Amino acid sequence: MDTVLKSTGSITKAEALLLIMSHAAVHNITGCQLDDLLKLINFLFGNDVVPRSKHMFNKVFKNNSEIVEFHLYCRGCKSHIGTQKLVTDQNITQCPSCNEAVEISSLNNGSFFIDVPVAPQIQNLLENPEIQEHLSYRFDRPNRIENAISDIYDGVMYEKLSQPGGILSDPYNFNSDGSPVYKSSKFSIWPIQLHLNELPPKMRFKHVILAGLWFGTHEPSIQVFLKPFTEQAKSLSSKGVLWRKNSVQVNSKVVGICCCVDSKARPTMQNTTQFNGYYGCGFCLHPGVLIERQVKYTVIASGHDRDSKSKLKDMEVPLVEGRPVRGVKGPSQLINMPYFDIVWGFVPDYMHAVLHV
After folding, report:
1. Bridge-partner residues for 73, per DSSP?
2. Residue 333 has pLDDT above 90, yes or no
3. Are the CB atoms for 112 and 72 separated by under 8 Å?
4. Of the segments 86-100, 246-260, 295-309, which one has the largest average pLDDT value?
5. pLDDT at site 65
6. Which of 174-188, 211-225, 326-340 bottoms out in mean pLDDT, i.e. has the lowest?
7. Residues contacting residue 155 through CB under 8 Å, at least 6 positions apart
8. Which residues pair with 188 in a beta bridge?
9. Rounded distance, CA 348 to CA 149, Å?
10. Spatial distance between the Cα atoms of 146 and 130, rounded to a whole number of angstroms
11. pTM score, two decimals?
């Protein structure tokens, strides 16, 4: 007896295109094979659920070139080469840093990442009537208890930036972490995701904003990956986002104040020593002690807290002397984000630091 195939309805067309692009990159398939794969998927579903040819598939990304931007990086030294348009226009065939050959066929290799404009996504959110109803959540949230920390609004940094004349209007949290495309694959996708803290918790995570996407066989060269994102952050905090409420135009300045990542991703984003090395804590200056061939962080009386001012000074030394200073390997792209604290803008990793102990 034949069984009719039915769609579960749980995957969007955009997600399907991303999965197909990932499959093409993982298996390095030819244009002819991609053509056949698209035809097979449409045949199984009985209609054109995805572009019906390689030409139309590539056209989807070409037509959205103003929405997403492809950045090429060197497969050898991992340095940033430029946008796909720049590489094509200037006919760049070699990496300026190591002379490795540059491949422009983005869909068939893992040496690219995608930068997604954040401002239009925030604008669309803020102009949604359902969203507008909840933008006052931080002022009228229920069950608020004095001197208790129940949300990000109760934090010292948030309260400081919310004082009269402060910048905060629509602050956001951001994070980045990797997930395998397939369970049996070494290929991973690393997204940069944002959510608006102005919204109630459930709505924040329902309306997540995508700012970037790295695809490859290895973890991102995070400082390369973060550069376009920090450029967007500077524009969001200075120019802001224009949106309309009841036919009235509003200009909201948007700033990132909190980066939520785990203990493995945090040092790569801060450009510091990992947690199992000397001076591996991102929040204090405990030097670490070698015990049984492992660096441990024993209880000491004088583990002074780090601060952004001294950490910025520590970032200057590796540029000149080529060595880490108190666990700092060099500058981080995140110091270019206005109002973001390179130390206390991060949060402790509850999962690894508490649940896995």
Report:
1. 80
2. yes
3. yes
4. 246-260
5. 47
6. 174-188
7. 149
8. 180, 216
9. 15
10. 29
11. 0.78
